[in-house]
Amino acid sequence: MPRRVTPALLASALFTAGLVGCSDDAGPAPREAAPQVTAPAPPSQAVAATPQVPVGTAPGKAFAVGVRQLKLNRDGKRPLPVTVWYPAAGKPGGQPEGSADAATGKFPVVMFSHGLSARPADYKTLLTRWAAAGFVVAAPTFPHTARGGDGNVLDVLNQPADVSYVLTQVLALDGRSGDPLRGRLATDRVAAAGHSAGGVTTIGLFTTGRDERLDAGVVFAGTALGVGTAFAGAAAPQLFVHGEADEVVEYAAGKAVYDKVPWPKAMLSLPKGDHGRALLSDGAALRVVADTTVEFLRWSLYGDQAAKGRIPTDAARDDVATLDNHL
User: Fold this and answer.
1) Burial of 86 (0-12, 13-18, 19+ CB in 10 A)
2) Torsion sign, CA atoms 110, 111, 117, 119
3) Backbone phi and psi for residue 154, each to the nearest 5 degrees, phi listed first
4) Angle between the N-to-C axes of helices 197-204 and 159-172, in degrees from 0 to 180, rounded to the nearest 10
């Protein structure tokens, strides 16, 4: 995201993108919006030719899922409670989700950012699917854009820094004596993902707020602040997921940002998909989104080449989506 953006400029860009009303029950964004604003592009940076994660193999089994809460606060002014879902010891489905011993292994970390007027729990079905596949998923609740906050959409500008702060705290658990996740985090294999305003946040983490610890990104129904946004740093594969009938963030807005990604990338498009129901409710679309994103994360964070090969098959299941594949 642009480093110097006036509140009026940012508000105009956000309203134009349709990011006011990201929750599933929100109505369509107002169409009487300000003209499109072109933000200045940051200086171009060299881009590595290949992803950073070496070839490996993802776990072939499903894990039980544990969950815990972290109470974090950036600079003492930005409370950031974090929900963490993680692979747990025990039989999958054989124990209730809750605090449990972590499974044996070193698991990559996925940071997830919720949409406007949403909370991490809204995405539980998808995020627990990721955890069961062998990922530690950390999802902060943002202080202003979460449901129950003041709804200040301008605060999305601060959220990439929030995610980077939370990532630092989560990775530190790997070396913290007595912590349940001590020795369980693959601290050098990290992705960021997010929906709607959280998708804007995620894109920011690969552009002007580039966090070089990130190896991959998943953007659900997201777009960028300004059309001049440039991706920066080492190559980090990106998977975009967007409904072609999105009534909040237009499909074309997401596709325009996807087209600018200079790294390995793919876009999963749902012809009948709206702004987020495929993430928030069960059904064929959710199964396709979950399976495709799991294989993408297995490939991009574990380096699993077989998982990469399964992405097109999972995307084509049940004829609910199409895949533009440049991975």
Assistant:
1) buried
2) positive
3) -60, -20
4) 70
String of DSSP letters for 213-232: T--EEEEES---SSTT----
Q: Is residue 69 exposed (0-12), middle (13-18) or buried (19+ Cβ within 10 Å)?
A: exposed
Q: CA-CA-CA-CA torsion for 240, 245, 247, 252, nearest 10 degrees? A: 50
Could you tell me if 162 and 140 are in contact, meaning their C-beta atoms sit under 8 angstroms apart?
yes
Question: Among 127, 103, 126, 110, which Cα is nearest to 171's?
Answer: 110
> Residue 42: what residue type?
P
Residue 168, C-beta contacts closer than 8 angstroms, at least 6 positions apart: none
pTM: 0.87
Q: Strand order in 238-243's β-sheet?
A: 64-74, 78-88, 136-140, 107-113, 185-195, 216-220, 238-243, 265-270, 322-326
- Tens digit of each residue's pLDDT (9 = 90 or more) over 11-25: 444 544 555 445 544
Region of 319 (left: φ > 0; alpha: ψ -120 to 50; beta: rest) is left
State how beta strands 107-113 and 185-195 pair. parallel
Distance CA 278, CA 126 (A): 9
Per the CB < 8 A criterion, the answer to whether 246 and 273 are in contact is: yes
Q: Which two tokens stand for residue 295?
A: 């294989």
Helices and strands in the chain, H and E counts? 8, 9
Closest by CA to 84, choosing from 101, 56, 65, is: 65
Rounded distance between C-alpha atoms, residue 83 and residue 137, angstroms: 8
Strand 216-220 vs strand 136-140: parallel, antiparallel, or unpaired?
unpaired
Q: What is the pLDDT of residues 116-173, one digit of tens each?
A: 999 999 999 999 999 999 999 999 999 999 999 998 999 999 999 999 999 999 999 9
As a whole number of Å, the end-to-end CA separation of the chain is 25
Token digits of residue 9: 């400029």
CB count in 10 Å sphere of residue 274: 16
Count of all residues that appear for the chain in the document: 327
